[in-house]
Amino acid sequence: MVAQLKQLVMTKKENRNYLHNAEIILNELSVKYKEAHCALHHETSFQLLIATMLSAQCTDERVNQVTPALFKKYPTPEKMALADLKVIEKLIFSTGFYRNKAKNIINCSKEISQKYKGNVPQELEALILLPGVGRKTANVVLGNAFNIPSGIVVDTHVLRISQRFGWIKTANAEIAERSLQEIVPKKDWISFPHWMIFHGRQICTARSPQCEHCFLQDLCPKIK
């Protein structure tokens, strides 16, 4: 029993150190990437929604190349809902999975036009019921269009770097999100993914992380 109590005390102490280390890392990220922002170009919440749907299995850069022509032709849910499927497919072809994406974009636009009078809903539960919209997309829209911290956006950068920090041990985005919500203060839920994405692109890359040049090298356990 005494040994078990000692182990429990050690575990609690280790947990405090672990959370303190995470707090320092988060603060360093917030300072280094204070200008970090959503990389998807948009002017309205609807445009951000569509751009995020297009970003599935596609780079933000590619989406930003596609959306200007798409939004010029169909700037609102009402106009997108009436679009010809083949025209949408042609416009978004280079983003991949274009047939399924085009169908979802039109059906999603129809539902927003008819059920929500052309306004993108501001509730997580309503958003994830729209065609082609999952939790990640909903979190992106609520956080970046409406400043509502509904959750943490978990993309490949967030997953990879959180694993290297030792914050998560899963590749499942929903499980990872729940774990990260225990570590990241709610006030940072919107900004946190942007910090991680910038860090993942500039330093903590997938194949060859530049650990020797990283400002977090003394804090990061560098878990592979």
Account of the 3D structure:
This protein has helices spanning 2-32, 45-54, 60-73, 77-81, 85-92, 98-115, 124-127, 135-146, 156-165, 173-181, 191-202. With 224 residues, the chain is mostly helical. The protein folds into two domains: 45-146, Hypothetical protein, domain 2 (Endonuclease III, domain 1, Orthogonal Bundle); 152-224, Endonuclease Iii, domain 2 (Orthogonal Bundle), CATH 1.10.1670.
CATH architecture of the largest domain: Orthogonal Bundle
- H and E order: HHHHHHHHHHH
Low-confidence stretches: 1-13
What Rg, in angstroms, do the CA atoms define? 20 Å
Broad shape: elongated
Total number of strands = 0
Structural class: mainly alpha
Relevant CATH superfamily of the largest domain: Hypothetical protein, domain 2
Q: Terminal Cα separation, in Å?
A: 36 Å
Number of domains: 2
Summarize the structure.
This protein has 224 residues and is mainly α. It has helices spanning 2-32, 45-54, 60-73, 77-81, 85-92, 98-115, 124-127, 135-146, 156-165, 173-181, 191-202.
Which helices and strands occur, and which strands form pairs?
Blueprint: H1 2-32, H2 45-54, H3 60-73, H4 77-81, H5 85-92, H6 98-115, H7 124-127, H8 135-146, H9 156-165, H10 173-181, H11 191-202
Helix pairs in contact: 1-11, 2-3, 2-8, 5-6, 9-11
